[in-house]
Amino acid sequence: MMSRIRANRVLLACSAALMVLVSGSPAVAQNAPSPGFYEPPSPLAASSPGEIIRTEPSPLLLEIPSPDGLIPAEATRFMYQSTDTHGAPVAVTGTYLDPAAPWPGPGPRPLISMAPGTQGQGDQCAPSKLLSQLIHFDYPLDLRGEYELPFMTAMLAQGIAVVMTDYQGLGTPGHHTYVNRKAQGHAVLDAVRAAQRLPGTKISSGGPVALWGYSQGGGASASAAELHASYAPELDIKGAYVGAPPADLAEVLQVVDGTILTGVIGYAINGFSQAYPEIRPIVDNEVNEVGRSVLNEVAGQCVAETALRFGFQQTRDYTRSGEPLSVILDRYEEVRAILADQRLGSIAPTVPVLIQSGTADDIVPAHQVRQLAREWCSQDATVELSPNELPPIIPGLAVNHAVPYLAGIGESIEFINARFADRPVRSTC
């Protein structure tokens, strides 16, 4: 009965937050980041992952003072040290939200490390900027807003603290390392380390943590769960919510081509070309002038503009040979090796995992998500696979990709609450 009441409260909080997001107004000047905040020191000081480089207040557009603090939370924007895909130090930014609501559960107040879904590749798309803007529009097509806000608010309403990374290169210099397994997993884990080092918060160092992410964020959450034991074993991670994770990028590349999100392929190519400079000559040799223009344009866009500009296009129109990019890239051994290294499933998470996926997902195919679950299960991981059986609705429009995230929020929040309460874990392995 208590869990049902809590679930209803969560759904109400999400609905309210969604209404605020949809009706929000453009950012006000005083909420803008201070000049130079996103510019890392050069060189980076020799310090450990999770070390805080700088912080500043990050006023939310709507805040209500209360005796327990600002409602829904007092936000801090911060830059912290993380590790890129090759093990080199890199500066990443993020936001910590300290909730006003009391924590009613057992033990110390917990923390969610929220891995955001696809935001875009332009620096203006960084979640730490969008949380102060809610909705922002630049003529003619750059409409942006933080769609993770309802899910974040649901956590805060329960007294759970939230930290959200911007990932490498989103806000900070360089291309955002879109869907890069190690870079994203490191950023998610190091955001926890940094949040627990912030002074004057309501969480404690060494307190309980859970991971959360859907789509791109689902892949980042999955990667963080896999890397936890080797990269950040000191963190007390209780579980991970992994929604629609792109576990096999080679397969996702084929499926997303020709959909509303064709342009995100450009995000991935830009990011991998930066992380792996050896493939730049391949890209330069294979794309035509149209493809080159697309790569340049999406590098400065958020996802709504990318969808409006390049949705339903085919990557065969971007190549000199007229073949899809998936076919061309598969010819190169070095590209195949890079994509193979991005695959999730080879390392078993040591924490319980809830995986959600739409059976008719038209962006991240469900069978590669099921394969991820099978691979984890074969390594004795504790996995609950929860399919959403919504029938296909206008395939290619991403309806069957987005709706399961919203529809599954009751289950995903209850899973997180159960992990923080140390309740028995359900496994479908």
From TrEMBL:
GO BP, sorted A to Z: lipid catabolic process
Family annotation (InterPro entries): AB_hydrolase_fold (IPR029058), Lipase_secreted (IPR005152)
Protein name in the entry: Pimeloyl-ACP methyl ester carboxylesterase
Annotated keywords: Signal
Organism classification: Bacteria, Bacillati, Actinomycetota, Actinomycetes, Mycobacteriales
GO molecular function: triacylglycerol lipase activity
Organism from which the protein derives: Hoyosella altamirensis
Signal peptide residues on this chain, from the entry's feature table: 1-29
